[in-house]
């Protein structure tokens, strides 16, 4: 099941300021010409595009609906002769079906989380930024504002990451999605199969959706196989059920293979604490790009996505840790003095406090993190999402 990573705004990161190009892009997306003149009716076009975006979801729902009918009616009702076998198949099938639909539903309908207002430029700075034509001066304005925010990552060129579409300083791991037309916290990718951005608000649901989709297909394959063979070898009489059962097996096997490979990749990403975007392009910290910048060790990486209470791991109930705006970072290649300096600059710890191995550091009233040697620091913002 292929997924598309779609991140229109990220191209803005490469240059410190490309205000004119961006203004033109914004003009195109809003239907405004370069001089404020109305262009072609973009509203109708956008409505059509939004409706078309639901096509893959509709396709998946039709396949699921048909698979339900084929399994319950054609296999269980018309083909399986014994009651005990029929009932046990139906119970197991409905258990996985319910979990699969629940996690799919949550992935589709969880609104992508966007940066809080704390990341927008204050009105005075915003006015200055918009008036200013020189990229380096604009960067100075952004740097000044970013100093009071828990923002560590930079563009490849070392500039503060700013989204001209949403007019916010991008929090770490946040990216602009051109399909959703918004900045999405801890954006992983835009998934056409759920017509939604996969990010901080629904990444756990997405992984569970893949897991239950794989299990749903596995249950179908395992239970249908003997009847598939019986029809194939003509041990069962030809009936209208034959067509459904043969196709049910092929379709379930096909989906199983594609979903399992995608699930394996995402489980690997969870273990490494990387998003799909970060797997392709390492986040840039003050000390340079570091693909493992957010990795805290396998166990803590899993807990960051699934939460610290194992009972919630299998249910599509939100239990991811943090607020999506800031993340515990592993400041590799930075000596403890330098790491402290970064925190002090952000006003997050007093200057006389030192990080020492295994010491619990309270960097904020709401934040408590155990440091891993001198390398892990936690930065949480004061506001709630
Ligand atoms: Zn944006
Ligand atoms: Zn999106």
UniProtKB/TrEMBL annotation:
The chain crosses the membrane at residues 58-81, 87-105, 205-229, 241-265. It is a multi-pass membrane protein. It is an enzyme of class 2 (transferase). It catalyses: L-cysteinyl-[protein] + hexadecanoyl-CoA = S-hexadecanoyl-L-cysteinyl-[protein] + CoA. Keywords: Acyltransferase, Membrane, Transferase, Transmembrane, Transmembrane helix. One of its GO terms (cellular component) is membrane. GO terms for biological process: protein targeting to membrane; synaptic vesicle maturation. Residues 347-372 are annotated as: Disordered. The gene is zdhhc20a. It is found in: Membrane. Belongs to the DHHC palmitoyltransferase family. The DHHC domain is required for palmitoyltransferase activity. This is Palmitoyltransferase. Its EC number is 2.3.1.225. The keyword Chaperone does not apply. One of its GO terms (molecular function) is protein-cysteine S-palmitoyltransferase activity. Residues 161-280 form the Palmitoyltransferase DHHC domain. The keyword Manganese does not apply.
